[in-house]
Specification:
The protein has a domain of 43 residues: Membrane-bound Lytic Murein Transglycosylase D, Chain A (Roll). It contains 4 helices and 2 strands, in the order ααβααβ. It has a two-stranded antiparallel sheet with strand order 1-2. It is elongated, with a radius of gyration of 55 Å.
């Protein structure tokens, strides 16, 4: 084994010193950035903390709103499920009633004779004889209607008289 010369040893020592100096310088820069001595730098970090706190509060309030909405939607979902259950029950009830009605109709159809529908004979309508009143001088629709137990509107309607129409002596009015 050969002994190292003092020059080579010196070179190795210089390289080690350079690495150590570089490492020490990196540590100093790191601590200067992470732990600044100036209060200005600390206020920047403080304002960042404030912004983080505000953002956190905003997110928490939005989360609360979303939770409230979710709770409301869950309530609506539950009420919709209840309505669906009720509608299913009504549907089943109506289906059974329709089936029962169909059975009744079938039994009634069996009872009806096959000859078809029976015709009801026409019953002649009785014609009532019309009664007339001949208007005299001084007669009014009100007096005539009271004499025959009618209202003025009924009397006007029976005789196709407009509300503003006047009656004249000698005119024939239907009163029954």
């Amino acid at each position: 084994m050969a002994k190292f010369s003092s020059k080579e040893q010196l070179k190795k020592d210089k390289v080690s010193l350079i690495f150590m100096a570089t490492g020490l310088l990196a540590l100093i820069i790191f601590f200067a950035v992470v732990f600044p001595k100036d209060r200005e730098d600390r206020t920047q970090f403080g304002s960042s903390d404030d912004r983080l706190r505000q953002t956190e509060e905003r997110l928490l309030s939005q989360l609360k709103v979303l939770e409230d909405r979710l709770a409301h939607l869950e309530e609506r979902d539950q009420s919709f499920k209840q309505m669906i259950h009720r509608l299913d029950g009504l549907n089943a009830s109506l289906s059974s009633k329709v089936a029962h009605m169909e059975k009744i109709v079938e039994s009634l159809q069996k009872k009806v004779p096959a000859s078809g529908p029976t015709r009801v004979p026409d019953v002649p309508r009785r014609r009532t004889a019309l009664r007339y009143h001949r208007v005299q001088t001084g007669d009014t629709l009100y007096q005539i209607s009271r004499a025959y137990g009618l209202t003025v509107d009924e009397l006007r309607h029976m005789n196709n008289l407009a509300p503003e129409a006047a009656i004249k002596p000698g005119q024939k009015l239907i009163v029954k």
